[in-house]
Structure formats: C-alpha cells, structure tokens
Amino acid sequence: MRLPTWPIPVFALVLFSGCIFDTEKVDHPNAANLPTEHIEAVNLPTDPPEDSVLAEPNAPENQDSLPASDTTKAIEVEKSEPTPSLQPDEIQPPGERQPPQAIQSSEEPPSLPEISHPVEARPTLETPSQPASDLLFKSNFAGESRECWKTQGNTGKFSPSGCGDFNSIGSEGVTLSENGISRSGGQAMEITYRKNEQQAGATLNIKEDVVHYRAYMYFDKGFDFGQGIKIGRVSGFNESKQENDIDIILLAGSKAGDQCGVNDMGFLSLHFNGRPAGYDWGSIEAPISFQRERWYAIEFQVSLNQAGKSNGIARIWVDGEMVAERTDINIRGNLSDAVKLNRLRVGGWYSNSARGNKCVDPSQPSRLYLDDIAVSRTYIGTR
Known about the structure:
Blueprint: H1 10-21, H2 36-42, H3 68-80, H4 101-104, E1 135-139, H5 146-152, E2 168-171, E3 174-176, E4 189-193, E5 198-208, E6 210-219, E7 228-238, E8 243-254, E9 265-272, E10 283-286, E11 295-303, E12 312-318, E13 321-329, E14 341-351, E15 366-376
Antiparallel strand pairs: 1-15, 2-5, 3-4, 4-15, 5-14, 6-11, 6-15, 7-8, 7-14, 8-9, 9-10, 11-12, 12-13
C-alpha cells in the first residue's frame, strides 16, 4: 500500500504510529508475550490418553480374532505401563487456561474397561480359512426350480439338460422338498428309495486332482439302511471308453444280517470301486451309526497321487471331526497325471444285493435329504 504524497498533519502521523507500533499498550489475552520455555510447556503430550489403549493403530481391528490368552496379555502390558503425568510446576499457561484434567491429576490412572465382546474359546477342530478360488461349487437349493426337478428327476435316466446349477438330474425318486425339511434356503434335495439298485441324485462336472465334497444329510424317520447305500461318489470318467478310469464311493452301510425289516446304520466308508489297474487300496471305514431325523455334515476328501508314487489321500469327516484317513495310497494306479477327477455325484444309489442278502429292497419307502452342498479343493468343514 503506497502512502499518499500530499502533506499529512504531524499530529495525525503521531496518532497513527502510536496505535500500530506501541506493543506495550496491547492488552489482548492471547498475546505472545510468554518466555520460550513456557510456550513449550503448554504443548499437549504426545503419549495417547488412557482411553485409547484398546484402539491403538497397530492393534487388530477385531479383538475376537485373538485367542483369549493373547488378549489378556496385551491388556496387562498396557496397564503395567501407564502414561506418565506431567508435574504441575512444568506447566504455566497464561491467563485462565488450564491443562487437561488427566495431566493435573497425580492419582493412579483408572483401570481399563472390560471388553464388551469377550473372546470365545476356539473349537477343538477349527475350520481353516478358505480362499475363494478354492471353492468350486456351493448350493442350498434356494434358487432351484422345483418343477424342473420333478420333471427331470423321475425319467428313469439321468437327464443331460440338468436343472439350475446341476449338470444332470435323475434317474428316479429325486425332487426338492415341499414338507419344510431343509437346513437352509427353504428346500433341500429329497430322495425316496423304494427298490434295490435305484439311483437318484444329480451330477456336477469338475476337473481336479484334489476334491473335497461336503453335504448336510438327513435320514428321515424309518429309513432302512441297506448294506451298500451310496451317498456320494467321485470319479474319473473316460469319455472315449464310456467307463470310469477311477471310481470312489461314499457308503453308509447297515450292520450285518439278512437285511429284512428296518436296519440301522453300522459303518461309513470311502470305498474304491474296482478301477484302475494297479491301485493299492480298498477302503477306509469308521464304525458309525447315524441317528434318524438329524442333520449331519458329512465330508470326504480324495487327493490323487502323482503317477508312480503312493502319496494319495483319502479322508472322511463327520460334523467337523475326522473319523477315517489314509495318506499313503496309490489311487491313479498305472494311469498318468493327465487323468483327473471329473464327475461328482450328489445323492445316492440304494444297492443291497452284492452280499446275497435275503431282503434287498427297502422294507418301506426311505427318504434321504441333502442340503448346503459344497465342493472345494481344500477342507470345507461345517461352515
């Protein structure tokens, strides 16, 4: 700003300079007239207040993910090293400004509040986290058409057109439930067995070296367990030969006897069904008897071995607990690594005549329900 060039009265200049440059007459409460050491003492401490102990930047976002012992340890460390309070003579702020109450207090800091969401104890068998890329298929049948399943599931053969997410449906006695029996989604796969060698279920197409298949299964009231009820199947189907190079079956078998009347379950096994040449195992089995009218999470794993090595794996879990296992088997036999597991059967096959039983058909219509199907390259568990 340029000053005017015309003459200015002397008394005006004196008055103007006195208002601007006489700092001794400024009486504003925020005037910066304190010594340097006092200005530094007013600055707030850099240590976090006590209330922020549970919200440090490096702390996990979810305290529930920590084991209980680790969480307790972390809190004890913080409590044993409280933020030191400044002494009153170190702070001399101007005017009426007072330091924060926490700084003035010389008492011990208050104890930390209890965590409102205590860490739950981990289950004995924890389900490992599963990358999304490992999950191959998942369905609770909520989006499936009941009319399609009624039509395709009772033709006497497996329909190649399939329904919804499933590649084929068949051959008889399979539909979706309408009686309210389902674990989630409002409907489940329903299979009614009325005769021996009846097949019923759906097929999924895959192409894997390692397959985990998990299904929740519900055996209805009065279900008659035959000695060879196939409740799951994974195979390596050879299109050119129209036969399975590899065929592995999950069996829920009855106890020994003539199979007349209503039979209870006696074992659960993963059984090698004849091929290929050169394989070196037969089955893994667990002496289990399922209760009727109850959901079970049943999962099996088949990991093909490298050609020429006995490093294949077969496992079974029930409700998250491993009940049978072998880890040193040759599943491919004399086949090359090019042979994969490419078909998965969801559902089953009532087979009760292989041992020459007197009564081969179910003593009464026997219903099996399946829900919350999942297929993965890694362990699925009960989630």
